Amino acid sequence: MMQKVLLIDDDIELVEMLKEYLEQESFEVNVAHDGAGGAQTAMQQAYDIIVLDVMMPKLNGIDTLKAIRQHSNVPVIMLTARGDNTDRILGLELGADDYVPKPSTPREIVARIRAILRRVKPEENNHATTQIIVGDLTIWPTQRLVIWQTQPVTLTSTEFNLLEILAKNAGQVVTKQDLSQLALGRPLARFDRTIDVHLSSIRHKLGTLADGRQLIQTVFRLGYQLLKD
User: Are residues 143 and 110 in the same domain?
Assistant: First the structure.
């Protein structure tokens, strides 16, 4: 079955070029040229991933993302102005999975799309009963379900990926470079705060342990560690 992509961007030339490229790569593509129309389209049918520009008329990308996240945890890649860290971090905090700075090539965008979709698709050798259990945390990778202290936790695609990686390596330090490569499918860029922002969101959703500690600990200059005990 073809994977469905929704492109939301007011740059008609870029959208048409990217749409053609994606269709050549065997994706089914729908487009919207403003935020309001994009948000409505995103809610009308299911998509495997959304590519969303920040600067758009009627409803900007940030507000469009807010509207989408009220109804769906579909993976979202934000298109941001190169060097615009404010919109980039805000988008990640609101639930974007990753970003691509503009200008960018269709090949780069498609590579990011494939990297995220590979992580979202359950591995074929997983069984429905397979679980990762670390203390009060239980993860079902196939169903992409997380239970923390008996309560389900709603995570974005990338947040789930990061938590799963840390849980599989509970008690060990995982570097930011490894987290970026494994969760996002790309090397960590210099000054890139994507991993930090996602992990901050996960910590907020999980809350603290009984003794007040965070389940996910920062290990200075090394990376992150999920507490095993």
Answer: no
